[in-house]
Design a protein that fits this description.
The protein is of the alpha/beta class and 236 residues long. It has a single domain, classed as NAD(P)-binding Rossmann-like Domain (Rossmann fold, 3-Layer(aba) Sandwich), CATH 3.40.50. The protein has helices at residues 12-23, 39-47, 61-70, 90-93, 105-131, 156-175, 204-216; strands at 3-6, 27-32, 51-55, 78-81, 137-141, 182-187, 225-228. The chain has a seven-stranded parallel beta sheet with strand order 3-2-1-4-5-6-7, with helices on both faces. The longest helix is centred in the middle third of the chain and has 27 residues, at 105-131. It is globular. The protein binds NADP nicotinamide-adenine-dinucleotide phosphate. The site of NADP nicotinamide-adenine-dinucleotide phosphate has 29 residues, from helix 1.
C-alpha cells in the first residue's frame, strides 16, 4: 500500500485526512506537535497498525531534519503539508493585529515560518523519500484567500503567507519536474474546524473525501496547479 506523511494531525483537517487514509489501508505517518494531548489521533493509532505517529512542530526545522533522518530510505508517495495557523482574527476575536495600521510583525514572521517556510523545508528534507516512491506527490493545503486575483482586502498575514505558498508549490513543480515529482496547492473549502469555525458550510469528512479524490488523480501534466477541494481550479 502507498505511504502518506501528513503534518498537523492533532485535529481538524489533518486528523480527518489521517482517519480516511488509514481507513483506506494506506501507511500513514501522522505528525503533530503534541501527540500525548491528541486523544483522537491516539485512538486511531490504537486502531490502525499501519499508522505511525511522530511528534513534530513544523516551525522547528532541526526537528524536521531529525525526522527525515529517522525516515531515511522509506518511500513516501504523498507528502502532505497541512499544518497551518490563521493568526489573530479581527472580526471573531476583535484582534486587529493583521489589519492595516495594527500589524504585528513578529506574529507575521511566525505565520510565514509555519505556513510558507515549513512546507519548503519539509519538501527539501523529504524529497528523496518522495522521489523514490511510486506516486511522487507533494501537496500543500493553502487557501483560496491566498488568491491574489480574488482578494478583497484584510487579513494581511494569513493571505500573504498562503499566496506565497501557492507560488512555492508552482515553483517546485518546475524545480522538481526532472525528479518526476508532482506538486499541488489546495484550498480545502471553508470547513468546520477550529480554524474554519462553526459557521462554515462544509463538514471535514465530505470535503476531505473530495480532496483525496483530486489528489489521487493528479498527474505530471497537472503539476503546479491551485485546486479547490472539489477539483475546480482556482485563479492565482
Ligand atoms: N478550515 C478551513 O475552512 C480552512 C480553509 C482554508 C484553508 N485551511 C487550511 O487547512 C489547514 C488545516 O486547517 P484546519 O482547518 O484543520 O485548522 P485547525 O483546526 O486550526 O488545525 C490546525 C492544525 O495545524 C496544527 N499546527 C499549527 N501550528 C503547527 C506547528 N507549528 N507545527 C505542527 N502543527 C501545527 C495544529 O496543531 P496543534 O493542535 O498542535 O495546534 C492543528 O493540528 C491549514 O493549513 C489551514 O490554513 C483551512
Amino acid at each position: 500500500m502507498p505511504t502518506i506523511l501528513i503534518t498537523g494531525t492533532s485535529r481538524g483537517l489533518g486528523l480527518e485526512l489521517t482517519r480516511q487514509y488509514c481507513a483506506d489501508g494506506w501507511n500513514v505517518i501522522a505528525t503533530c506537535r503534541m501527540p500525548a494531548e491528541a486523544s483522537e489521533l491516539q485512538a486511531l493509532d490504537k486502531q490502525y497498525p499501519s499508522l505511525n505517529v511522530h511528534a513534530l512542530d513544523v516551525a522547528n526545522f532541526t526537528a524536521i531534519d531529525k525526522l527525515a533522518h529517522e525516515l531515511k530510505g522509506r518511500p513516501i508517495d504523498v507528502l502532505l503539508n497541512n499544518a497551518g495557523v490563521f493568526g489573530p482574527k479581527a472580526k471573531a476575536e476583535n484582534d486587529p493585529r493583521q489589519e492595516f495600521s495594527h500589524m504585528d510583525y513578529e506574529m507575521w514572521a511566525n505565520l510565514f515560518r509555519i505556513n510558507t517556510m515549513a512546507p519548503m523545508k519539509i519538501a527539501e528534507a523529504f524529497v528523496e523519500n518522495v522521489a523514490t516512491s511510486a506516486q511522487k506527490k507533494i501537496v500543500t493545503i493553502t487557501s483560496s484567500v491566498g488568491s491574489i486575483s480574488r482578494t478583497d482586502g484584510r487579513t494581511n498575514a494569513y493571505r500573504t503567507s498562503k499566496a506565497a505558498t501557492n507560488m512555492l508549490m508552482r515553483n517546485l513543480s518546475f524545480d522538481l519536474k526532472n525528479r518526476g515529482i508532482i506538486t499541488a496547492a489546495f484550498c480545502p473549502g471553508w470547513v468546520k474546524t477550529r480554524m474554519g469555525g462553526e459557521g462554515a458550510p462544509l463538514e471535514a469528512p465530505e470535503a476531505m473525501a473530495s480532496l483525496r479524490r483530486v489528489i489521487a488523480n493528479l498527474t505530471p501534466k497537472s503539476s503546479g496547479q491551485f485546486w479547490l477541494y472539489n477539483g475546480d481550479l482556482i485563479p492565482w
